[in-house]
Fold this protein.
Amino acid sequence: MSNEDIDKEEMNIEETENTDIKQTHTSIFAKPKNLRRRKMVNAIMLGLCVVAAVVSILPLFYIFFYTTKSGISSVNFDFFTQMPKPVGEAGGGMANGIVGH
């Protein structure tokens, strides 16, 4: 092959690349044919994510409210000011935990 043939081939490659770039450039701004399908799939997946989030948070709320309901009766002024009682004795508090002894 001569230098002229190689130059022509390089020019053809460059022209083809430029044409591809122009087509890609215009296709970016063109309205996609599957836009309706993509929006529908997006809405479905978004809905599934919301359902999954709600389903995963419900047990956490249940545990929080159950613990609060069960423990709220134990919280009073003595609970914060009395020292802990030995194991097995009723009552006691957490004064040493607050004060740091």
Q: What stands out?
A: The two ends are 93 Å apart (CA to CA). The chain has one domain: 3-88. The chain is about 75% helix and 0% strand. The chain has a mean pLDDT of 80.
